[in-house]
Amino acid sequence: VDPRGAAMCLGSLLILVVILSASPGAADKAPTALRGAGAQIDQVLVFDAGSSGTRIHVFNIAPAGDPTKAHVPRIDLSVRPEQTYKVKPGLSSFAEREDLPGVQKNIEELVKFADNFVPKDRRATTPALLKATAGLRSVPQFKAQAVLQRIRETLSATGYRVEPEWVDIIKGKEEGGLAWVAANYLQGTFGEEGGGAAGKSVGVIEMGGGSTQVTFEVPASVQLATDDEFVFETALGRRYRLYAHSYLGYGQDHAQTSLASSLPGAAGEDP
């Protein structure tokens, strides 16, 4: 596994893997499930709305021999570099200023980029979803919800398939849990098609712009607080129970801002 490649697409790949592989009974799938999206999905647009900016990934689902025998879907990562694009600033910046036209402009720019890779006749069946993380979790709820509603309206007018629940803010434990799923997907933990043996899972410490997540697998005998428990179930029913905790305010951007403001004479500027 290329650690640089894993880090670059972690925020979005993790969401896609869970969306397309979670079985109907999987815990914690409701916030990200593509309810009613249908089984035949060739591409998915995932908007990763982080603290420093919003990145779109146009993911291609690689054909599998028999999708009914796969624990997780196959994703064609070879096209990731050219099918990823980021705009700044993050949604929280627009939310704080209540700049909804700015939100719409950024989303439209990202969709225009995606149009280069999704044929026009397939856009109506291509799901588009946006997941916001710590940045929007840190602003007043009414401002965050106004931003999300403008995004729903903007995406609905693009011709892609979108449902209101596909645009939301993920919980801290979900962010950590999905980071674990992405890292272990790339590591090959979930086994091959046909019910292959599972590999040993790896724990994850993932630092974003506004928070840091710590996630690792725990046995059933370990008691966890509800807010720290995340369960992932593959399409074939293999179940993983995780400790997942998000430390809001301990992200890279927050750390840099705090450091800059503490320096004598810095006046809060980034050195």
Short description:
It contains seven helices and ten strands. The chain has helices at residues 3-21, 91-97, 100-114, 134-137, 141-156, 172-187, 252-262; strands at 43-49, 54-62, 74-75, 84-87, 128-132, 167-169, 204-207, 211-217, 229-233, 239-248. It is globular.
Outline the structure in words.
It is a single chain. This protein is of the alpha+beta class. The protein has a single domain (1-271), classed as Nucleotidyltransferase, domain 5 (2-Layer Sandwich), CATH 3.30.420. The chain contains 7 helices and 10 strands. Strands 1, 2, 3, 4, 5 and 6 form a 6-stranded mixed β-sheet that branches. A hairpin with a 3-residue loop joins strand 7 and strand 8. Helix 3 (100-114) runs parallel beside helix 5. The two termini are 34 Å apart.
Q: Could you please say which CATH topology applies here? A: Nucleotidyltransferase, domain 5
Average pLDDT for all residues = 79
Determine Rg (CA atoms, Å).
19 Å
Helix-residue proportion: 25-40%
What is the second-level CATH architecture?
A: 2-Layer Sandwich
Q: Give, in order, the helices and strands.
A: HEEEEHHEHHEHEEEEH
The number of distinct β-strands equals 10
Low-confidence stretches: 1-12, 20-39
How is the biggest beta sheet arranged? 6 strands, mixed
- Basic shape: globular
Number of distinct helices:
7
State the separation between the terminal residues, measured CA to CA. Answer: 34 Å
Structural class: alpha+beta
CATH class: Alpha Beta
Active site: 175 (proton acceptor)
Signal peptide: 1-27
GO molecular function, one term: ATP binding
Family: Belongs to the GDA1/CD39 NTPase family.
